[in-house]
Automatic annotation (TrEMBL):
Entry EC no(s): 3.1.26.4
Descriptive protein name: ribonuclease H
UniProt cross-references to Gene3D superfamilies, sorted A to Z: 3.30.70.270, HIV Type 1 Reverse Transcriptase, subunit A, domain 1
Classification via InterPro entries: DNA/RNA_pol_sf, Rev_trsase/Diguanyl_cyclase, RT_dom, Viral_Replic_Matur_Polypro
UniProt similarity note: Belongs to the beta type-B retroviral polymerase family. HERV class-II K(HML-2) pol subfamily.
An MF annotation (GO) of this entry: RNA-DNA hybrid ribonuclease activity
Classification via PROSITE patterns: RT_POL
Domain Reverse transcriptase: 6-187
Class of enzymatic activity (EC top level): hydrolase
Organism: Hirundo rustica rustica
Pfam families found in the cross-reference section: RVT_1
Residue ranges of coiled coil: none
Amino acid sequence: MICDLESQGMVSKTHSRFNSPIWPVRKSEGEQRLTEDYRALNEVTLPLSAAVPDMLELQSKLESKAEKWYATIDIANPFFSIPLAEECRPQFAFTWRGVQYTLNRLPQVWKHSPTIRHGLIQAALEKGDALEHLQYINDIIVWGNTAGEVFDKGEKIIQILLKASFAIKKSKVKGPAREIQFLGMKWQDGWRQIPTDVMNVQPDCEPSLPGHPQEEHFPLGP
């Protein structure tokens, strides 16, 4: 498994005083993932002054637009698009079969990863003069009065992100549509409502979680 990640440039051999626990996990669809636990590292990581936007504030802004058409873009595996600085890599080290490795890309559940990711995507969009949009980390929404207007806005943002080396999958682009989901809400004509599939969840049902919130998952292929 590690050989696959090493050949992709995601990890490399190292010698470090840091060492986080890892274990392989086979998902239900047969795909194997390497899971890394960053709880101890997160506890000693100093805070950052920057922060991601407030979700409720973004929802209020989107409500004020009251447009008829929407499109959303969800950047695929954005963490793997962001290289770690050489001097930062040792703290993400782990040991596999007696050999120590470290990550070369931004880990998904490290304490500051969402903030860094949001800032880099935001900087790329600003540099590319992206048209009016809202962004929450790697989720982006555009709006307009016509489907054509929304398509053009979305296409320009996609090209800006591709130029900045972020990956975009067609399956992660939704719309243009009169009704769309964004930030956990369904949007139509500037109004938001909780999606039906969420409202129908029984309160006494225990949801099935994919793993501990501080675990790192790396896709390793079939």
